Amino acid sequence: MRIRGLLVAGVLAWTQASTGVAQPVIEPPPAPAGAEAGATTQSARTALQVAFAQLREREFAAARRSFQAIVESPGFDALDENQQYEVLSLAGGLARDLGDPAHAHPLLVRASGYPQAEGGVWYARLKASAALGDDADAARCITMLVRRWPAIMRELDERAIQRLATRLEQQAAAANERRELLDALFDTGFTVGGEPPDALWLSLVRLALEQDHVARARAVARKIGSPSSILAMHVDRRFDRVVDSAERFQLRAAVEADIERIRALVESEPTRLSHRVMLQRRLLDDGRDAAALADVDAVIALVTEAEGARYYVDFDDEYPWVLDQRAEALWGLDRWEEAIVQLRRAAKRPEEGGMNVSQALNLGWYYADLGEADKALEAVEDLGETSPYGRMRLEMLYLMVAVQREDASAVERHLAFMRDHREDAIATYQLALTHAGRVDEAAAVLIERLRNPEWRSDALIEVQPSKAVEKPPSRAARDKRSKAVIARPDVQAVIAEVGYLRPPSTTAAPAS
Question: What's the CA gap between 476 and 369, in Å, rounded?
Answer without folding.
Answer: 9
